[in-house]
Design brief:
This protein is an all-alpha fold and about 190 residues long. The chain is built from 3 helices and no strands. Among the domains are: about 80 residues; about 55 residues. The model has no long low-confidence stretch (mean pLDDT about 80).
């Protein structure tokens, strides 16, 4: 019995292996055909591009030869602008920019002048009102502002507390002592 069960098991195992092998082979065959069809389309695409690239190379070579011929003839490249024209254009652009800046400055100066005239007119009105005969403050004298040289300033000295003066004196003494020590060391070394 055991032998028969083992034989049945072996047969089932072989059948399972054969089924798996067949499934694997079917899957691989399907994958080969699918990959082959995709590769065929890629191959066709590459072959069509090769033809286009060769055509483009031929066209570019013809164009390069034509440009060389125009340079040999002394005509130069027709699409590029000459150095003189380039500088002339840049000069014109710079001149236009400076003209715009100058116009803006002139407008600002004119605006400042009108503001200045308005301020002077307001000051004149105030001055005339201050000098009017019926004014309560008629005794106010309106004259030019005195020059800064005639002003006097009060002299002020900073007064330190005795503790602060003692600290400063102590710092000076310590500084002098350090200098003396350095001079002594220097004298010993020389």
């Amino acid at each position: 019995m055991k032998k028969e069960e083992e034989r049945v098991k072996k047969e089932k195992e072989e059948e399972r292996r054969l089924l798996e092998k067949k499934a694997r082979e079917d899957f691989q065959a399907e994958m080969r055909s699918e990959i082959g069809s995709k590769l065929d389309s890629v191959r066709e695409l590459l072959e069509s591009k090769k033809g286009n690239e060769e055509d483009e190379v031929v066209k570019l070579r013809i164009e390069i030869e034509g440009l060389r011929n125009t340079l040999r003839a002394g005509q130069g490249a027709s699409t590029s602008e000459s150095t003189f024209d380039k500088y002339k254009r840049e000069l014109e652009e710079e001149k236009a920019r400076s003209d715009r800046r100058l116009a803006a400055m002139e407008e600002e100066i004119a605006r400042f002048r009108t503001v200045n005239e308005e301020v002077n007119a307001a000051a004149d009105v105030w001055k005339n009102e201050a000098l009017r005969s019926g004014n309560r403050r008629g005794s106010v004298v309106v004259t030019a502002t005195p020059a800064p040289g005639t002003r006097t300033h009060a002299r002020t000295e900073t007064m330190f507390s005795p503790a602060v003066e003692d600290l400063k004196l102590k710092e000076r003494v310590e500084h002098q002592e350090r200098e003396i020590e350095l001079l002594k060391e220097w004298r010993l070394l020389n």
